[in-house]
Amino acid sequence: MGLTIGVDIGGTKIAAGVVDEEGTILEKHTVPTPPTADAIVEAICAAVTAAGKGHDIEAVGIGAAGYVDDKRATVLFAPNINWRHEPLKDKVEQRVGLPVVVENDANAAAWGEYRFGAGQGHDDVICITLGTGLGGGIIIGNKLRRGRFGVAAEFGHIRVVPDGLLCGCGSQGCWEQYASGRALVRYARQRAMATPENAEILLALGDGTPEGIEGKHISAAAREGDKVAVDSFRELARWAGAGLADLASLFDPSAFIVGGGVSDEGELVLDPIRKSFRRWLIGAQWRPHAQVLAAQLGGKAGLVGAADLARQG
Amino acid sequence: MGLTIGVDIGGTKIAAGVVDEEGTILEKHTVPTPPTADAIVEAICAAVTAAGKGHDIEAVGIGAAGYVDDKRATVLFAPNINWRHEPLKDKVEQRVGLPVVVENDANAAAWGEYRFGAGQGHDDVICITLGTGLGGGIIIGNKLRRGRFGVAAEFGHIRVVPDGLLCGCGSQGCWEQYASGRALVRYARQRAMATPENAEILLALGDGTPEGIEGKHISAAAREGDKVAVDSFRELARWAGAGLADLASLFDPSAFIVGGGVSDEGELVLDPIRKSFRRWLIGAQWRPHAQVLAAQLGGKAGLVGAADLARQG
Amino acid sequence: MGLTIGVDIGGTKIAAGVVDEEGTILEKHTVPTPPTADAIVEAICAAVTAAGKGHDIEAVGIGAAGYVDDKRATVLFAPNINWRHEPLKDKVEQRVGLPVVVENDANAAAWGEYRFGAGQGHDDVICITLGTGLGGGIIIGNKLRRGRFGVAAEFGHIRVVPDGLLCGCGSQGCWEQYASGRALVRYARQRAMATPENAEILLALGDGTPEGIEGKHISAAAREGDKVAVDSFRELARWAGAGLADLASLFDPSAFIVGGGVSDEGELVLDPIRKSFRRWLIGAQWRPHAQVLAAQLGGKAGLVGAADLARQG
Amino acid sequence: MGLTIGVDIGGTKIAAGVVDEEGTILEKHTVPTPPTADAIVEAICAAVTAAGKGHDIEAVGIGAAGYVDDKRATVLFAPNINWRHEPLKDKVEQRVGLPVVVENDANAAAWGEYRFGAGQGHDDVICITLGTGLGGGIIIGNKLRRGRFGVAAEFGHIRVVPDGLLCGCGSQGCWEQYASGRALVRYARQRAMATPENAEILLALGDGTPEGIEGKHISAAAREGDKVAVDSFRELARWAGAGLADLASLFDPSAFIVGGGVSDEGELVLDPIRKSFRRWLIGAQWRPHAQVLAAQLGGKAGLVGAADLARQG
Questions:
Q1: Which residues cross the membrane (chains A, B, C, D) (predicted)?
Q2: Helix axes B301-312, B105-116, angle to 10 degrees
Q3: Are the beta carbons of B292 and B128 closer than 8 angstroms?
Q4: CB distance from B195 to chain C under 8 Å?
Q5: pLDDT tens digit string along A29-51?
Q6: Minimal Cα distance from D192: which residue of B?
Q7: Could you say which of A42, A114, B139, B150 would form a disulfide bridge with B125 (CB–CB 3.0 to 4.6 Å)?
Q8: What is the spatial distance between Cα D260 and Cα D262, in angstroms, rounded to a whole number?
């Protein structure tokens, strides 16, 4: 017994997956992401209905980028979709006839890793997701901690550089400006501009100009030993590790899980993050150290986590 | 039924207080703080025994500066006392014959405020203590959150300035170097040095030199409108509020409680902290805002909190 | 004897003025700034010819934004015009039949102020121009110091915040991102967003939104005491003054001259700059302090300075 | 014709050397540095008299740490000696009966390198001295530039990190806190504390503890490939090179000369400084780049430079 559907809303497609109690995706249905806020609600419902056909579904969990309220019902604000105080739970429940739980997508991914991925066996886990930006989730005492108003774990927006880089959130110096896929690309472009002779492999993978460098080029070039690419990963890791050290001072978890597209590079990025974490960890000689683990579920963590959160009710 | 003893270990004296279920201190006994680590253990036991005489005591809670392990038994490291992996719980239990709980002192104070002070009625509270340094405690879901290994909530040591001021912890740029009583004195001395004509009241309260400025002078001068004193509080508040905004991004509590000696100045410091908090709060227009409250228990928060934690077992 | 023509190349118009030995503009001719690099050269020549008609002109001085080589002949790079290694001196000399000197526009303005404005009587002067960006010029020993290769005095691009704001130059944390007209607008918008109740006058001057705030609104609102506007000028002054303190450590001039559009506000911005300068000046008690003076020539400093530099040959 | 004496005042000894027009030291006399301000004046005179015996001396140049006034006569402030407005020129002239010129020691060393060392053939040179702290000198147009009041070229005290490390000067974030021998030791100790397994060679050279690490150990360990030692030099070079890039934006010299004890390591430190300089140089593709050269005169640059400045009168 006990199938639920998890929904992942991406920039180009919306995926709805039927997930069992072990976190296995039995069936998945995707639809293109439409351009307007209302149409996205329709598309979510369509994907859920299509995926659930022929299954006995108990509930639906939706992972959405942005602020979700403490009732897990309303999207207060979404950065990429024009949702403002959007009653997503009610709308979807009415159309699909199933109980719906809405969750911040990074929270959902954190929960997925905690339940079925790298976090298994840990009671207190902090996940960070290094994607285009930087998100994350907090598990303390085996529960997802969402904050009093539902908007906790916005890791990407703690200020790590006073008067630092402008962030899309309107503030300056946010962590995600220094530790994210977007930051990685910036590091590589700046370095390739300053020292092109150290970026020959990297530049050859794109159009030959610093501006033409994209994330995938940096990964490929780093694996071939391109100096600028390797240094760019190190710079990212320097900031990621220092931030994890701050989170250790605050949360003292037994494990950090590093997910998101950037972490797909595995030890290329995990190893320098661990070193930086250890470099900056306060009181390192007097305390047990949290492990820094690679996420295991990849891109499906959010969908699986959302489905499992729906199951928990 | 249900008296417990709370112990507060200060730099000059150790206080043991008998506390009832309402958080009232029925009786308090203090002894001078001896110079050596072993003698301090003895002094704690003596204070507990003296305070408990004639009362029916169930348990003892000790608040200690430093890292306390997850079993609330061992002081892993104390910054001011030469305790390293000190089995304080066992030692005191053996001598006083009562169950003992050891807790980080800032955690104990946070718990005191949550139970009997400004935090009453809130489920999710973050306390910060602006004393000589900066400490704090985390209450989520009505429980004190100590981290997996007992050393969470070391707020004072998150890095707010990369390559910033040296900290006693060995790292650089720690929050407590910018938001604490010690920071306040530094701000005032630097400003009085640069613009003595704006610090006439302040300088007159000390020995006339910038080096002679102490914390109490700054408070007194600020109340009289001394420009340097007022600006020094604002600078402190600027950093305190910006840090609270970060903690809101992470924990999203319903209230922050600001305690410690610096907060004794009340609105003189609370008001600019609130403004700075609001200035830097991310997504301010899309989320409910945490309240920023003054602590209510003053210097007894730690003792009362430790006693109550001992009662909870 | 001795009339020369100074040329000022603005974003919307090009001005050529006939200037005498006292720095007086006898006649001025302006033409619209055309869109292409070649057409701008033509327009310069046309303006010079028109202005010079009926005068006995000895030489022409052209102030151009960007890098000008050490021979004062070639524009190596212009940020706003597509000039790259542009032989401007040769081109204009061929067409107007007069000796031509090309100079960086901020250098020209500095020279103008030194010769005929606030810098008269000083041998060692540093000028900064707070316009949209931040430029400046160096006079040491009564000579304009251009550097070995002609590109000295790029004050706006010294790094004042490591890992700070992105700059148009490709680097991060450049001074002009913190002390310039553009920075002033950013400060006002951020503050008006965070605390609109403190920006009522300011917001009413624009379209009512933070994004609608422009520089002229901030000046007007500050004069009426609008808190956000005043605080925005203070923030700008904080950075401007701290940078001047650095320049004092390096150059130790007898005077700083602050020009550019932002400085048109006079004491509203000069007074806090002086205070910040004094706050950050190193060794303040052991050294004579440079004066911080308002520029006197306003927008014509560059034209007059260029003309005078042409006269000097 | 034309022998002069140069004087170098060190922490442990005072050296007076007879120098000819080619910058060759013909004879040198040293005396221990006495503890009091007056005694140091006596010792200088004694050393000069002893060194000059049997030579036909024209003048004496004294290099002194601290602020020297624009008349090159009075030490306004010395950081290590209790000289405050000390009329050193008059006192020494009276006793030795020769014309005396007083100069800031880093200025003297810069002049020495310009005249007889790495700066020969350059008209515009910036020297930085990476010793315990960071000093330097400015040569523009073949003249030493001392500022209007004599206190220019205090490179070590420009602010490179807002709210950064405390400096002995009373300010924060000064360049010399990040690029100097003292900074190098701090880097090595911090890293050896965090990752002792990467500092085995380094730790073995001292007493085995991070606190026991000294500058000479870092040099020796770096030459053997010790990771912490190499990384510490890189960190120093990162800050040194970024600062040189700022100086290039300001002064645009044809060469930088890097001297001082740290630079004795040669390419070990010069090579990463050059890379960092290039990484941060603004407008790098549009301008000729200054060379970054190793100083050639070592510890005698100050004495030789002071002697030569005395010759120039």
A1: none
A2: 80
A3: no
A4: yes
A5: 999 999 999 999 999 999 999 99
A6: B170
A7: B139
A8: 6
